[in-house]
Design brief:
CATH superfamily of the largest domain in chain A: Aldehyde Dehydrogenase, Chain A, domain 1
CATH topology of the largest domain in chain A: Aldehyde Dehydrogenase, Chain A, domain 1
Pfam families (chains A, B): Aldedh (PF00171)
EC number (chains A, B): 1.2.1.4
Enzyme class (chains A, B): oxidoreductase
Structural class of chain A: alpha/beta
Strand content of chain A: 15-25%
Strand order of the largest sheet of chain A: 15-17-18-13-12-19-20
Number of domains of chain A: 2
Protein name (chains A, B): NADP-dependent fatty aldehyde dehydrogenase
Keywords (chains A, B): Oxidoreductase
Helix content of chain A: 25-40%
Oligomer: homodimer
Chain lengths: 503, 503
């Protein structure tokens, strides 16, 4: 089956030279990845870091073509796509630094010694790669969460082969991205089979079911996430599933914040809701504004009414936006202050602003609408907010806009939000996720599977497993666990030690 | 429904005063645990460490009664049970040390600063408790993997409430253990509801389904593990499942090792296979002996024939041992060198030694027989071993007995085993798992879910999740993430720093 590529700015689909991957091809790609795993594991960390840096170089060298192709397949603006490509390259280099540093290995040495239970053997532990990783790119980040995205970077940094499932909304971007990956792999001397790509929904399912695939990274809908989990549960050996599935990202503005900086907040919020046409996993989808915060709401309404239509990523997302907006009003009881309007061409739409009273908020009013839509919830007291939050699904982020003298009163709210999300933002906006060591992009279900991040350096941990050597001859130990090694941080006999220069 | 307690040494069941927990009671216990979670999270780490140490003290103070009750419910010998109780107490104290040290928090501070993508906000991350944990104790470790076991210690150390599901084979031990936990909690000023216990299979299922339960730790059969996963997948919010389910633990003896220390190996292996009546998750269940290693096999056979019957933990395990032994012979094609025999009283049995040729090894010959049974696999070359390993399920451990001059030749075998297990043991035995920082007790499915250990300090990580604060006012940050704090190891702006004395 030949694949098509659709320009969401026009809605015109064009044939490509790409074909859906057959089950037999998936098998051969996954098998090749498994064969490459051993050789990749034996590459020194420095060689793997060099591979990651080479990838960053390759994608920057092909920047113009990649951005142009992605713009035609996603409708995202070129400045945004350029920034995203920069982020992807930065991410590969940051992860290369982490591989060089070696702290991610969590190396531990317990020398043989007496314990209350008798003599204890020598035990040495570190994290090792788990095997070929299936990576499902998302529609909304054709670079940073797709073929060149954080899951690919994490899996390779950890030392695993990667097989990506190209997103059906940007097949040509995926193919061009994959070519950059492959060029880097060749240049860096990575083993054959360490990178693979498959196309088509059936190929994705076959990949998740493949016995040699060791884990799945997925960014997409809750519905598809559930289907992939079902495939995993029907495997003989269930494997880890890292899904980033859905997030409402509640944002609360206190009365003091409205008074002190209402206009700024209206502008910042509108930008956060409508940036990239609202198609960000951290878009604040439900925003709590006090009853006497009309000035803020009026300004958001004004901005929304004035806004031009923007293209959404594909026809499905475009149709869903209007379907969900309708459901939020009809079943959810929200009132459309500004309804979304279909634009003149392709899959374009204007922003929507809905309003509902905190006391009326139910789960029917908090379905995620992926696109430039925000539900404004009006409240009288912070206790009303607390009560209404039970209708909001757990999320990646929550945001509080509050003045310093309100922090004590907001304490219970902050505590409550902490249980519901993975990142708490103060007096800012959750979109624009910083890629750094401390970032956490994850939250209780349905945001993710709670335990790990998909952005930031610690995302590497998802694709590693601990391994212990007991009384192993030194020659069989990895270099990082030999006694004389001091070049990586380690915990030795219970005491954490920094790396020192030298071996 | 009133529960009974059965003495496996006699097979006699006696009524207890314990009742199966109703669904309504499970709901109230889980809800109380969720309410306690907030208060527990606010306890300073030092107070939580004190709670863990107090638990160790309480269980040691009640040692004699606990051991006597457990002996009558499990048939395990008192020296073994005393050692196990010592291990449980040690574990609580070791985890208290880890809580005090604070490295497990993985604290990270990224100060605000410029990035290639523009200005980056201040991001601070550390691990936080995930919420109430359901702990399913195992039959074979009434202390170290049950109410007082590693899952309870890990979950509490992480700062989570715990609800244990008492094992039906040792309800009185569970109740007495729980009383020690509760006494410690009261003495340490822990919040009400932080500890709960439920009895009965239905209560266990209700616990796993309960919306306020945040994760499940389970040690038991593959069959029950699959049932619990099904319950989890049918939840509105699937939660992490940490199952330790089944393990064959292949052990390979090279020709050189047979020549150099055949008699020692026979004795050590027999002890490892039959200790605790072979009811250890790390028991070597399949052992590769070279064709010309008759001396080793003959000695194991002699020891097995001479061995007295030992009680197994319960009637189910006793019946399974004989059923599986029969299947290994009839469907698996193994030959019984020494068949198991039923003892004179209760659920007792003598050891079994089966033999099969490496070329004949199929999955039908590698079902785990929980009890004193070993399958000896005879081989001609290490390549035969490599080929035969495909019939062995992935395991917690693998063991190699080899002479120093054989290590080069054994390289491919060691590589292959590394992919299949979580711990590799050299010239020793996998049973007797050291509790330490570096221990890893986990392996690819069906051993565990691969990514985490259930023994050793890093087991705490299973019950934590990352959390990030963005631009948070200092007063709202946990003490461990404030700039002035130096008492825990942290990564600051990418650089790992050790703790220093003081704040």
């Amino acid at each position: 089956m030949t694949l098509t590529s659709t320009d969401p700015r026009t809605g015109v689909a064009s044939p490509t030279a790409l074909e859906a991957t057959s089950d037999a091809q998936v098998d051969s790609i996954a098998t090749a990845a498994a064969s490459a795993a051993d050789e990749l594991r034996r590459m020194p960390r420095a060689a793997r870091a060099a591979l990651l840096r080479r990838i960053a170089d390759e994608i920057e060298a092909d920047r113009d073509a990649l951005v142009a192709i992605a713009a035609a397949e996603t409708g995202l603006a070129e400045p945004r796509l350029n920034g995203e490509l920069t982020r992807s390259a930065f991410q590969f280099r940051l992860f290369a630094d982490a591989v060089d540093e070696g702290g991610y290995l969590e190396a531990v040495i317990d020398h043989a010694g007496d314990t209350p239970m008798g003599p204890g053997p020598d035990i040495r532990r570190m994290l090792v790669p788990i095997g070929p990783i299936a990576v499902f790119g998302s529609s909304n980040f054709p670079f940073a969460f797709s073929v060149l995205g954080g899951d690919t970077a994490s899996a390779l940094a950890a030392g695993n082969p990667v097989v990506v499932k190209a997103h059906s909304s940007h097949p040509l971007t995926s193919a061009r991205s994959f070519a950059a990956l492959e060029a880097a792999a060749r240049a860096a001397g990575a083993p054959d089979g360490v990178l693979g790509i498959v196309y088509g929904q059936q190929a994705g399912a076959a990949l998740v079911a493949h016995p040699r695939v060791a884990a799945v990274g997925f960014t997409g809908s809750l519905h598809t996430g559930r289907i992939l989990r079902e495939i995993i549960e029907s495997r003989e050996n269930p494997i880890p599933f890292y899904g980033e599935l859905s997030s409402l990202n509640p944002l609360i503005v206190t009365p003091g914040a409205v008074t002190a900086r209402g206009a700024d907040i209206a502008a910042g919020l509108f930008a956060s809701v409508t940036g990239s046409a609202g198609q960000l996993c951290t878009k604040p989808g439900v925003v709590f504004i006090p009853r006497d915060g009309d000035a803020v709401v009026d300004e958001i309404v004004r901005l929304a009414k004035d806004a031009a239509a923007q293209p959404l990523l594909n026809g499905g997302i475009h149709a869903s936006l209007f379907r969900i907006e309708h459901a939020l009003v009809s079943a959810g009881g929200a009132h459309a202050l500004v309804p979304a309007r279909v634009g003149d061409t392709g899959f374009t739409a204007t922003p929507a602003v809905l309003e509902i009273d905190a006391a009326q908020l139910t789960p029917a009013a908090t379905e995620e609408a992926f696109g430039p839509l925000v539900v404004v919830v009006r409240y009288d007291t912070l206790d009303d907010v607390l009560a209404a939050l039970d209708a909001v699904p757990d999320s990646l982020t929550a945001t509080v806009h509050a003045q310093p003298d309100e922090l004590d009163a907001a304490g219970p709210l902050v505590d409550d939000l902490s249980r519901r999300v993975g990142r708490l933002v103060f007096n800012g906006y959750p979109t624009g996720v910083r890629v750094s060591w401390g970032q956490h992009h994850g939250g209780p279900w349905p945001a993710t599977n709670t335990l790990h991040t998909s952005v930031g350096v610690t995302a590497i941990r998802r694709f590693l497993r601990p391994f212990a050597w007991q009384d192993a001859p030194e020659a069989l130990l990895p270099i990082e666990l030999r006694d004389a090694t001091t070049s990586v941080p380690r915990r030795v006999d219970g005491i954490l030690r920094l790396a020192t220069l030298g071996a």
